[in-house]
Every structure is written in C-alpha cells, then in structure tokens.
Design goal:
alpha+beta, 3 helices, globular, 6 strands
C-alpha cells in the first residue's frame, strides 16, 4: 500500500489497525490492517518503507494530519526461538503503542 492510498483510507476510516513490525537492525516496517487485508506501507518506488522508531511513525501520521489509529508494536522474541523450550508455534510479542503522545 502506498502512502497516498494509506492516507486516503485512514481519513475515510477504513484502517482497522497499524502494526509496527520490529526487525533486527533497529528498523521497523508498517503493516496496515484494513478490510482489504494486511499490507506493508511502500514508497513511490514500491520499496517497503523503513521507519526508525515510534516517533518516526508519529511524525509521519502528524505530517498528513491523520486521525488517531490503533497501533501495536510487533516483535519476535529471539530468546524464545533460541532456547526452543516451548512446544508449538511461538507467537510474537504484541504491545499497544499510543501514537497520540510520545510519553
């Protein structure tokens, strides 16, 4: 999903939730959950947008004057994967993120 489409859907109230997906290396990808499914935010070249922090995401939303959107930080817990002690699939950690205020 490109930025223009994301902004239009957010303003129309068609975004269910944002997922700020944390990856190794200290960057994040934004996954947008809507009735059309789960899509990554891409730039004008079709490359996945890399965000630096939750503050970077807040700035992006404020820059386009978007309404408040529910957001969760999604992070896989490497320790669980390394130890291999639990049976079954290992779900990522999902923490709510307040995008309206920084602290």
């Amino acid at each position: 999903m490109n930025l223009q489409r994301f902004v239009a859907q957010a303003r129309a109230g068609q975004i269910d939730q944002l997922e700020l997906f944390s990856l190794e290396g200290g960057f994040y990808l934004l996954r947008v959950q809507s009735p059309h499914g789960l899509q990554y935010l891409v730039d004008k070249h079709g490359e996945t947008v890399r965000l630096r922090s939750t503050t970077h995401l807040r700035d992006l939303l404020q820059e386009h004057d978007l309404p408040a959107l529910p957001c969760v930080l999604v992070q896989h817990v490497v320790h669980d994967e390394m130890c291999g002690r639990r049976d079954g699939p290992i779900e990522p950690l999902r923490l709510p993120v307040n995008l309206e205020r920084q602290w």
